[in-house]
Amino acid sequence: MSFKSKLINDLKVITGDRYIITAKWNKQQYSKGWRYGEGDALAVAKPGTLLEIWKILQICVQADVIVIMQAANTGLTGGSTPDGDDYDRPIVIISTMRIDDIQIIDQGKQIIGFSGSTLFGLENKLAPYGREPHSVIGSSCIGASIVGGVCNNSGGALVKRGPAYTELSIYAQINLKGELEIVNDLGIELGDTPEDILTNLQTKNYTKDQIKFPNKLASDNEYHKRVRDVDASTPARFNADGRRLNGASGCAGKIAVFAVRLDTYPIPKRQQVFYVGTNSSYVLGKIRRDILSKFQHLPTSGEYLHRDCYDAAKKYSKDTFVAIDKMGPSFIPKLFDIKRKVDLVSEKFRFFPDNFSDKLMQFLSNFWPNHLPKRMEQYRNQYEHHWVIEMSDKGVDEAKTYFEKFFKENEGNYFECTENEAKKAILHRFVAASAVGRYHVLNKKKSGAMMSMDIAFPRNEKDWFEKLPSEIDDLLEMKLYYGHLFCHVLHQNYIVKKGVDADALKEKLLKTYDARGAEYPAEHNVGHEYFAKPTLSKFYKKLDPTNGFNPGIGRTSKLKYWK
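User: That's the sequence. What structure does it adopt?
Assistant: Structure tokens below.
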């Protein structure tokens, strides 16, 4: 029996035939990134329990094959898929999405999220307790996993909470001798052997007395102070921040994470969205500094949208907007799954155009009437810069008083959103992220490459809105700017003109960010798109000395022992 056949048979013994995927066409939804990265894998394993993950890992480590842990595969930088064909060992992808349990502890103040549990599932689970998770828009809508957010140092839109972070987790790693070990840092007494630990956790076979509350963080509980320091010369949050690299947090798949323990947050009793418009980026900068440094109550969120991005989202993200608006966020993971499968099927038949699902959805969206509220459309015509600011509880009145006075003395204006306007304003900003991808798909023949940049600017940066030198600007066909302005995390998407060397242009762009003291990526992880900075690569090597898990991440070595 060949090496491949034996390995696949051994895997099937653990999960059953149904959950080991070897056919090329069926593997593709796991081996191809949502936006970036693609490569082959020997097999995709879909375990149904934590113990099955452990047993699969044992086989893979013994066979000396690479393991890539994958949850929802919603990342934008290809960090949970193979990339290319220059690996020195075969690859097995372990998809954890069947293992979606969430356990509530401490009356809902904390949760334990298993490897395949989603943010959307957590949101629903916490609702009866009057609590909510770290992220409540964006990632939750596309079915992103809880563990994925922690592993990738994802930030999210919520101003007070910072990146997803915990020092309480349970994971497997490969030591320097090439041996698989389990590490229980979950703060719960679960037994001594991997089998006991994982089985007891899965079945919740533990008592309240076995749950400990060690002096370890289950969230970035200092972030609200950090973001208020508007005179600091460093960003509030970014992916390679050594302060927030610990175990599962920021590991980017260099260990196999079974579960994480996280803090939750009380749902505000009162919320109000303010829609701000101005033609001056400096006005928004002044508002940002005032609110962060002088307000007693921090905002819940503050989502920026440039007018060009407003227009692009209105046209190219309309179908996503309508789907979420009419069918709810719970439908979106299903929609993306259907979309992916349609494209896989269409690739088999030459008479279908490339990216058939995108082209079909765009065509159908043209028949839907204008979906944006009247007052938002008026502000679009009046103002270049748009900022959707959400306040809660006592912060609502504080903001109302401030804006009334501020816009008597400064250019621009604001309005208090109705419930319907608030919902649509937040949703419009969220779906803006997909606009550049749709535009690129529809204009591939006449346009150049797409670049999606994820930038964290210093907290003291006042000239935050990008002004590119002409030698760069003249090579760009489209620029779309949006982001989390209070945190100074901006998403800057570009389409280059046809024939332009995108890699060379990207290097020039990165140099402009370096000159401004920016860090990148801010919250999407390095994946296979960005180079891991020394702090990050050192952390990866410490977690995974043999380079057996997700090699090549952050454009590091794909070879065993990092050679």
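Residues 3-98+541-562 form a domain with the Uridine Diphospho-n-acetylenolpyruvylglucosamine Reductase; domain 2 fold (CATH 3.30.43.10).
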